[in-house]
């Protein structure tokens, strides 16, 4: 009786600690959709203006996060943020206030991290500040 | 007579306890299966309060190159009302009602969640054993259920939330334990194994199944009206990975792992009242791919037999 109980318990424990099923979808960059709705490429901002950043990303399986970076001359980062987001789709709604005193063309790069193996996709948008 | 003698034998049970933790992918110490340790007098009912606290530190590698690692500290505190009622000569009913106060502190913000946690009910069965020629022994097999009475934020598993610091897991889970206690004259030992089998919650997040093994040696000494039971041992806990979405099999491989502890503590009994303090000192640990490190757990409890 006791041996049976211990044997059954051992088998049960082995069952609940067994290998776990995992979504093993191979990374396909074509399925990772990243779009930037705002700012528009034609837009020009003045110092003190708020640049609304609206974007979306979707994928066939789980994504892990995103990074936004605004760079100016010499690819110097003026502003940036990153966030962990888990899901197969998400939208981004944030803003940056133009604090630059020099007129230039800026690049907004949105990079979405598909997994922890370094698979990612970047969408760029240039806009101007006066 | 046998019942009375068994009453002197220390028994032990385990139950799944506090929920788990942190933002992003690297998740805190969900391997925690709260230990009840050695309890006195199998044949008596009791009610008590148990306080458990521990601290974990994680260093999450930045998701993007060139960014600094994310440093997070979490503090878990649980004050638990618990008790045992003897249903028959062989069956006991145990209940656990925790109140949790969990804090997550990272470089930019501090988040605190507090409230009633998940309530657990467990039935223990005393397996009939041949009486040894010397001393006593007891084998208990327990099975229980944990109800989602604590709060689980539905956004917790989107990456912006913190699954582990919620006061509840949001899921119905099954717990079980097998505990064997052998006492000679004053010395004895207890070996126990326990598990928590989880189910996905409404948000489809599934905390990993957990198992724990413990071996404790104790010494029983009566001095006047007091009974002292110092004890020490080893404890190993294992947690499988969590699923961010169980239906889609989104396995979060930066959760789960192994924690092992050296345990030490003592229990003091005076008539119908008891006091126990335990420390769980981390030994080997490899949790959340090695990014999370737990510190010493402290447990203190009082109980009253009736």
UniProtKB/TrEMBL annotation, chain A:
Q: What is this protein called?
A: Intracellular proteinase inhibitor BsuPI domain-containing protein
UniProtKB/TrEMBL annotation, chain B:
Q: Does the keyword Signal apply?
A: yes
Superkingdom of the organism of origin: Bacteria
Keywords, alphabetical: Signal
Q: Where is the signal peptide?
A: 1-23
Q: What is this protein called?
A: Transporter
């Amino acid at each position: 009786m006791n041996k049976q109980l211990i044997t059954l318990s051992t088998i049960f424990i082995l069952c609940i600690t067994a290998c776990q099923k995992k979504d093993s979808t191979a990374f396909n960059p074509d399925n990772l959709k990243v779009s930037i709705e705002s700012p528009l490429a034609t837009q020009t901002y003045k110092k003190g203006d708020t640049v609304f950043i609206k974007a979306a990303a979707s994928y066939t399986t789980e994504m892990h996060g995103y990074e936004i970076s605004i760079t100016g001359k010499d690819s110097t980062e003026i502003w940036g943020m990153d966030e962990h987001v888990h899901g197969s789709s998400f939208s981004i709604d944030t803003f940056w206030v133009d604090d630059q005193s020099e007129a230039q063309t800026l690049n907004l790069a949105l990079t979405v991290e598909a997994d922890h193996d370094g698979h990612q996709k970047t969408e760029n948008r240039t806009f101007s500040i006066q | 007579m046998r019942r009375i003698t068994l009453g002197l034998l220390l028994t032990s049970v385990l139950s799944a306890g506090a929920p788990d933790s942190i933002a992003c992918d690297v998740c805190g110490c969900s391997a925690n299966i709260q230990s009840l340790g050695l309890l006195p007098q199998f044949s008596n009912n009791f009610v008590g309060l148990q306080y458990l606290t521990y601290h974990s530190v994680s260093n999450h590698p930045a998701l993007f190159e060139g960014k600094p690692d994310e440093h997070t500290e979490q503090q878990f505190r649980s004050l638990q009302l618990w008790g045992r009622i003897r249903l028959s000569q062989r069956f006991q009913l145990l209940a656990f009602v925790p109140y949790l106060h969990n804090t997550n502190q990272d470089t930019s913000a501090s988040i605190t969640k507090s409230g009633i946690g998940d309530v657990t009910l467990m039935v223990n069965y005393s397996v009939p054993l041949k009486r040894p020629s010397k001393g006593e022994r007891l084998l208990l097999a327990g099975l229980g259920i944990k109800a989602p009475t604590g709060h689980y934020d539905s956004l917790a598993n989107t990456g912006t939330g913190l699954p582990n610091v919620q006061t509840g897991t949001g899921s119905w889970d099954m717990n079980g334990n097998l505990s064997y206690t052998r006492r000679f004259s004053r010395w004895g030992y207890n070996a126990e194994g326990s598990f928590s089998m989880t189910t996905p919650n409404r948000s489809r997040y599934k905390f990993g199944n957990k198992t724990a093994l413990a071996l404790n040696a104790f010494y029983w000494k009566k001095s006047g009206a007091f009974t002292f039971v110092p004890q020490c041992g080893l404890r190993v806990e294992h947690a499988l990975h969590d699923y961010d979405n169980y239906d889609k099999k989104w396995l979060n491989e930066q959760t789960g792992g192994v924690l092992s502890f050296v345990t030490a503590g003592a229990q003091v009994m005076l008539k119908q009242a008891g006091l126990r303090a335990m420390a769980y000192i981390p030994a080997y640990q490899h949790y959340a791919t090695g990014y999370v490190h737990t510190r010493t757990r402290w447990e203190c409890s009082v109980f009253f037999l009736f």
